[in-house]
Design brief:
By secondary structure, the protein is of the alpha+beta class. It is built from 20 helices and 22 strands.
């Protein structure tokens, strides 16, 4: 590791300088060879910076590091070995500490992908075998025992357990998993044995993609990073030209060459914008790493900056403000049929269905302790429902159209219309042509969604809107329950884009969604935010930020972190520019020598690096 090497070399150079200094104090006269210790310190501490600077000069890309090497070489030329050694020591040490800070932030990201095991237990043809995770194929059944980490993304096909998803989603409590639920590589199984059907190849798991996208996002620079990089590219040659001017003007004023040269080197050190160069990228990297550890994927510095400056947010409804899973809201029976028998028939018809409402029907039957019936001749009726024979009776479950054109009784028709007006979907349970029951389905608001909306408003989000393709009555009900009054319903994907663009005229706007039809609007907003764990792959790729767990509470947390990162960037820039503004005139006027300039300048670099590192431990409750 380069950072470790720089720190070790700096410590060796430091011991040589301490020995050189101690001998100089104790011996009188000083040994003639004592300067060799300082010279050795210069070589050890400056070897790597010198190599880097030579490469930059050859490539004609003058970097700020060139300024420091020029100053050190100049001090050596005039015999100021001690000053040159201190200069290179602090320069190498600050670079090493900066590198360690970067590596620590990067390790927080790479640790994500290392959580997943390299081997898995595959069940095939009635036997179990240990195989490499890379050998698993989509559709393979994997056994995950209690206390093991999931080796692959997949769907539970057998068993129930609680799973710790905190490394990826940031959820503080284990999540209950049962057949049909998704699970993710790297998460930790609890007390139950689970059989899981692999949904993705090893290299495409949610955690592997998350780590890869974060690493790629580090190259996505924000406005502050781009401005800083542009400034240092222009600033470096200006300083290199200014230093000879300072030396020449002092000599014209009657100063000797050595004095003028040392003052010029002090100006060079004071003007070197090292702290400024790392002020933004160090904070951005630490912010992205902290977000990843908290279950929020931010794909680059530009998106981190935008997240911290948001003024408007446009939410999708289904799967974002709601759970995305329908619930049987009510069961109304007719003709004296019992609720349990109606649900038993419905469960038998929907037992193997993948329809979104089927899961709700099975849950309702289980909660009602309905008897288990066996269907025969099960037939799907596209767009209507499902038919089967149960205990010799022709049964059906589906929308009112399942009655094949037979007019509904007036009381049933009235209830269907009333439920639909209230924003609920309706399915009929039919036996031998007779309507036994009517099931009303509802997609409920997420727990805590109203509190999240209130928190967003308190944090400075000026406008919060709901943009959905669902019916106005449904949208109005959900909006009222979560505290959103600005609602646009019945929208097509292209209309959502138009609404997002209108909000952008107010200020930086984020679009939050999870469906495939949200991808265009996610991409058209200043910031696209996807509900990552249950979001579609298309939405996840189109988004700039992904909440890896279906937890809206991560959203105000992420905004708070982004704003803390913006404050840290500002603090770092002020520290870096302030030190330059003080040191340059002091050095030019002789108010500070070479040694003092070195200590103050390199000290500011260390302060900036550690100020950025504070973001790795950021906690909104303590902010």
């Amino acid at each position: 590791m380069l950072a470790d090497r720089d720190v070790r070399l700096s410590l060796i150079a430091g011991m040589l300088l301490m020995t050189h200094w101690s001998i100089g104090l104790a011996a009188d006269p000083k040994p003639s060879w004592n300067w060799l210790l300082a010279a050795a310190a210069c070589v050890i501490a400056g070897w790597h910076p010198l190599q880097t600077s030579i490469g930059q000069v050859i490539a004609r890309t003058l970097d700020i590091d060139v300024l420091m090497v020029v100053a050190a070489v100049g001090a050596c030329v005039i015999g100021q070995w001690t000053e040159a050694g201190v200069l290179l020591l602090l320069f190498s040490l600050s670079h090493g500490l900066e590198g360690l800070a970067t590596e620590r932030a990067s390790s927080a990201i790479s640790a994500l992908s290392e959580l997943a095991p390299t081997e898995a237990t595959r069940a095939r043809h009635g036997t179990e075998e240990r195989v490499l995770v890379t050998a698993l194929a989509v559709g393979d059944i994997v056994i995950v025992r209690p206390g093991e980490r999931f080796p692959i993304d997949g769907t539970v096909v057998e068993g129930t357990s609680s799973v710790d998803q905190s490394p990826m989603t940031g959820e503080s409590v284990p999540v209950r998993k049962e057949p049909g639920d998704e699970c993710f590589a790297g998460t930790l199984n609890g007390e139950g044995l689970l059989r899981v059907r692999a949904a993705r190849a090893a290299g495409e798991t949610m955690m592997a993609r998350m780590a890869r996208l974060v690493e790629e996002g580090q190259a996505n620079r924000g406005v502050a990073q781009r401005l800083t990089a542009r400034f240092t590219r222009i600033y470096t040659p200006v300083v290199l030209l200014a230093v000879p001017a300072v030396i020449g003007s002092m000599m014209l004023a009657g100063h000797g060459f050595d004095d003028a040269f040392l003052r010029g080197m002090a100006v060079l050190i004071g003007a070197r914008p090292c702290a400024l160069a790392i002020s933004t990228p160090s904070a951005v990297l630490a912010g992205i790493a902290r977000a990843a550890r908290g279950g929020v994927l931010i794909k680059g510095g530009a998106h981190l900056e935008t997240l911290g400056s948001l003024r408007c947010m446009a939410f999708d409804k289904t799967g974002t403000l709601t759970t995305g899973r329908a619930t049987v809201r009510s069961v109304e029976t007719f003709g004296g049929t019992s609720r349990e028998r109606s649900l038993a028939i419905a469960e038998a018809l929907d037992r193997h269905s993948s329809h979104p409402y089927a899961h709700a029907v099975r849950n309702a039957a289980r909660q009602a302790d309905a008897p288990r019936l066996e269907p025969a001749d099960v037939t799907d009726v596209p767009g209507m429902g499902v038919r089967a024979v149960i205990d010799g009776h022709a049964c059906a479950l589906g929308s009112p159209r399942i009655v094949d054109g037979t007019p509904l009784p007036s009381d049933v028709r009235g209830r269907v219309d009333a439920l639909r007006s209230a924003g609920q979907a309706v399915a009929l349970v039919i036996e031998d042509g007779r309507i036994l029951a009517m099931l009303a389905f509802e997609d409920l608001p997420r727990d805590g969604a109203a509190a999240v909306m209130a928190e967003l408003k308190r944090s400075g989000i000026e406008r919060i809107a709901m943009l959905t393709g669902d019916a106005p009555t449904v949208a109005a009900r959900i909006g009222a329950s979560v505290g959103i009054s600005e609602i646009d319903a019945g929208l097509m994907p292209e209309q959502k884009i138009e609404r997002v663009r209108a909000l952008r005229s107010v200020g930086p706007t984020a679009r939050v969604g999870n469906g495939i039809n949200d991808a265009p609007a996610l991409a058209s907003a200043d910031l696209g935010i996807a509900m990552g764990a249950r979001g579609s792959d298309v939405a996840l790729e189109a988004a700039d930020v992904a909440l890896m767990g279906d937890d809206l509470a991560r959203l105000p947390w992420a905004i708070g972190l982004a704003r803390a990162a913006r404050r840290t960037i500002t603090q770092n820039v002020v520290i870096a520019m302030g030190v330059i503004a003080v040191l340059v005139p002091l050095a030019a006027l002789g108010g500070i020598g070479l040694g003092g300039a070195v200590v103050l300048h390199e000290g500011s670099t260390v302060v900036v690096a550690f100020n950025a590192l504070r973001l790795l431990a950021w906690d909104r409750r303590a902010a």
